[in-house]
Design brief:
This protein folds into 2 domains: 176 residues, Leucine Dehydrogenase, chain A, domain 1 (Rossmann fold, 3-Layer(aba) Sandwich); 146 residues, Rossmann fold (3-Layer(aba) Sandwich). The protein has 14 helices and 15 strands. A 7-stranded mixed beta sheet has the order 12-11-10-9-13-14-15. Strands 3, 4, 5, 6, 7 and 8 form a 6-stranded mixed beta sheet that branches. Helix 7 packs antiparallel against helix 8 and helix 13 packs across helix 14. 50% of the residues are buried. The structure holds glutamic acid. Glutamic acid binds next to helix 12.
């Protein structure tokens, strides 16, 4: 997409950031100056990283680290490895991280990183060299008190371990808090791996209580990776009826409910999703199923103007980042669909990343039970705050508007104190 020039001639890459800010400027009572502060990241860094491949040749991988806003604390956000990564996408994800940390009230700003690469094409050795090269390249701009990366799409605990090790080799000292999502044996937090999903389950439970619904709801989950599989299991254990799940190859459907514990075990053992006895369906069909709750838990831009008129779910729980385009979001909201936005629904991951950083900083380590208990409290409080925002003032807001209003307010209040401006 072409860049546009903003009011002061500064390049605006992220269209979604601009559209969303415009959209909430009224409910959040934003001034021109507020929008000016938030419509651009503070710092964009990119590097084309050369990596030695197994056959002796060198491949060059475009990469990014974008630090959107650090008013509330060190910037925080994952690093994704995906062929489609570009500056616009990382901008949007860094913007969302800024709001996400503010919604759950953890003392971090927002950032995101990415490498344009198809992980499946790399050997383990090549993957390690790329991970280490990335952190060497951005060594000067990341750190436990400045910018703290984490896993995101196609990156995992092993990659975080290599990155911590590489950072420390360059720094010449230990620095466990430089990155989160590490293996527990290397300073990672118990419960981090399933934290995004547990957070999502807590938010759905809180929503169900808020709306006075019962848990016999039919749910379709798009994406059966780390987030989708753990979420399906948590929801199944809580009595929800998971009728459909999918991965990149397609999905399976059973209106009486899928055998989620078996499917989860299959996922953990890298078995094929289609081994169970259930009807098959495409990802497009899954998105338009007549269910109570649709959970996009895969990648961005899944609910768009191409399929928004066909969506039949009453509620959308956004476990992926940015799965609904702004146009589709508006359309669905106008048609009475309740969308629980990504910055609230999937904030459990970064919340436990914060807990991991606290443990690394204090050198006191918590049990999984303690982590999960703290996570529950943090998510429930965030939901209640957003629910209170939803109904305050002169008109009922959507969940997204309420979550954005809360988070933008928190970021601007911090900015205000830093620049000593009256914030009212
Ligand atoms: N990548 C995750 C997210 O999008 C987690 C980020 C983190 O833990 O810093 O929320």
């Amino acid at each position: 997409m072409d860049s546009e020039l903003g009011p002061k001639g500064v390049e605006t890459v992220c269209e979604v950031c601009q559209v969303e800010l415009d959209r909430i400027s009224e409910v959040a009572q934003l001034t021109e100056q507020d929008i000016e502060l938030l419509r651009q990241p503070r710092r964009r860094i990119n590097a084309n990283i050369p990596v030695r491949m197994d056959d002796g040749s060198i491949d060059v991988f475009p990469s990014f680290r974008i630090q959107y806003n650090g008013a509330r604390g060190p910037t925080k956000g994952g690093i994704r490895f995906h062929p489609g990564v570009d500056e616009e996408e990382v901008d949007e994800l860094a913007f969302l991280m800024t709001l996400k940390c503010a919604v759950v009230d953890i003392p971090f700003g927002g950032a995101k990183g990415g490498v344009q690469v198809d992980r499946k094409e790399l050997s383990v050795g090549e993957l390690e060299r790329l991970a280490r090269a990335y952190i060497r390249e951005y060594h000067d701009v990341v750190g436990p008190q400045s910018d703290i990366p984490a896993p995101d799409m196609n990156t995992d605990a092993q990659i975080m371990a290599w990155m911590r090790d590489e950072y420390e080799q360059v720094a010449g000292h230990q620095a466990p808090g430089v990155i989160t999502g590490k293996p527990p044996a290397l300073g990672g937090s118990e419960g981090r791996n399933s934290a995004t999903s547990l957070g999502g389950a807590e938010i759905l439970d809180a929503f169900v209580r808020h709306e006075g619904l019962d848990k016999s709801l039919d749910i379709a989950v798009q994406g059966f990776g780390n987030v989708g599989s753990h979420l399906a299991l948590f929801l199944h254990e809580r009595g929800y009826n998971i009728v459909a799940v999918s991965n990149a190859a397609g999905g399976i459907y059973d209106e009486t409910g899928l055998p989620i514990p078996d499917l989860f075990e299959g996922y953990e053992n890298e078995q094929d999703l289609f081994d169970v006895d259930a009807a098959e369906l495409s990802n497009d069909e899954l998105l338009t199923l007549d269910v109570d709750v649709l959970v996009p838990a895969a990648i961005e831009d899944q609910i768009t103007d191409a399929n928004m008129a066909d969506i039949r779910a009453d509620v959308v729980l956004e476990m992926a980042n940015g799965p609904t385009t702004p146009q589709a979001d508006q359309y669905l909201a106008d048609n009475g669909v309740q969308i629980i936005p990504d910055i609230l629904a999937n904030a459990g991951g970064v919340t436990v990343s914060y807990f991991e950083w606290v443990q690394n900083t204090t050198n006191e380590y918590w049990t999984e039970e303690t982590v999960q208990e703290k996570l529950r409290t943090q998510m429930q409080t965030a939901f209640e705050d957003v629910a209170a925002r939803k109904t305050e003032a002169d008109r009922e807001k959507s969940w997204r508007e309420a979550a954005y209003a809360k988070s933008v307010d928190a970021v601007l209040t911090a900015e205000g104190y830093r620049s000593n401006m009256p914030t009212e």
